[in-house]
Request: fold
Amino acid sequence: MTYDPREVRGTPYGAPLIPQFPLRMRDTEILTIVYRSDRDAIEAMVPTPLVLVGDLVIVHVYAMHDAEWFGVYGESAVQIPVRHEASGTTGAYSPLLVVEGDGPVAAGREIYGQPKKAGRITLEAHGDLLVGTVTRNDITIITATMPYKQRAGTPEDLEKHAPFRTNINLKVIPNVDGSGSAVRELTARTLGDVVVGEVWRGPGTLELRPNAQVPVHLLPVREVVEAFHWRADFSLVDGEVIERFS
Reply:
């Protein structure tokens, strides 16, 4: 007996890859590096009509210790603080994301429009040094470090540099007919019920290596402003379309 496709929320039928929101992400551990790059290089990564709010770039390396639906996995995001004038939305635009697991890759791309690709992520203490790495195609493209829990901070310290709660993405889903037409829209998603458990701050380092599949090197490091090690619980929730392109 066949089934009614109008009742299906995701595929494969009976074991969908894409979840329904909200999802609770518990005990998420994050290493965040805030750095200054070349303004021209940053602008080349940002679609119009988004407007830069500075010359900063943010790299997050996440250890997702307890994520509903997805389990335990790693993720990394390169983000650029921007503003969308027409809607008044301010947040962090994502030009590049790397994540472990087919579910997080598919959900990020299909629902939010996040430009996720698969890779390997580690976040762990090496003695008195916290080290985060991101690997794609067997090349470690991001290595981030900071001293391990030497100076306490606050969520306000973090958010003055890194507006992590609202994420803005360019969602592009091509149509199947080969015409070149596609869904093209700017989306915004604000994390729900955020509870920040601890924040540590200090100096940091960031090394970016070239890779044509995840070209983080196109946003060169000119100065590391600050590093943060923090933990949070939050919910992935539905977002909104802030602009559609015909």
Notes: The CA atoms of residues 176 and 182 lie 9 Å apart.
